[in-house]
Fold this sequence. Notes:
This protein is mainly beta. The protein is built from 3 helices and 14 strands.
Amino acid sequence: MGLVEIKPRSFVYLLQPKPVAIIVSVDSFGKPNGMSAAWLTPTSRDPPLLAVAISPKRYTYELIKQTRDFTVNILDFSMIHESEFFGGYSGRAVDKFEKSKLTLVKSRIVKSPHIAEAVTALECSLYDEYPAGDHALVLGKVEKAYVREEAIEDDTYNLSKVKILLYLGGGKYTTTLDHSIT
Length: 182
Ligand SMILES: Cc1cc2nc3c(=O)[nH]c(=O)nc-3n(C[C@H](O)[C@H](O)[C@H](O)COP(=O)(O)O)c2cc1C
């Protein structure tokens, strides 16, 4: 028993599992692209802000810089295949939405659509961006927030009604318990 030392660069896996989202963005013609993202966190309630760490190599990063908005779509446990697909190919090479069964819904405020099958969908306008090592910290202002009706109780997820997809890293996933502990 006791602590063992690991390589500092492997620390990222020790801050997971984390919920998986598909970040949807559009090009200047309105054509959508999605990428899986687990490095997500709220940063402010007022204004409502979140941060997602996106590598500048991603097509998604290029699109968000161009059209200045995106949506965050949290997946449920049945959507591992979608997580792997949207995280395994670049929109530069593949039209991922054309090849997937996911349904895109027009957003109310932002140009990027959101995903009908998601547990939660957040419309975000680009608020700011900071360099952050090999990723960029992309801050979104949450303009609209939607959640599956049965998935929410007293503002938090009702875990008996929804199984959130959580990413451990290295291609491994898990999910939530079917109850909360207070
Ligand atoms: C579960 C999962 C989580 C991921 N999380 C992130 C992330 O938080 N930030 C990131 O830059 N890439 C992340 N990736 C990698 C991108 O999803 C992947 O490089 C994707 O192909 C980029 O697509 P794009 O070029 O169409 O934007 C993740 C991949 C998977 C499978």
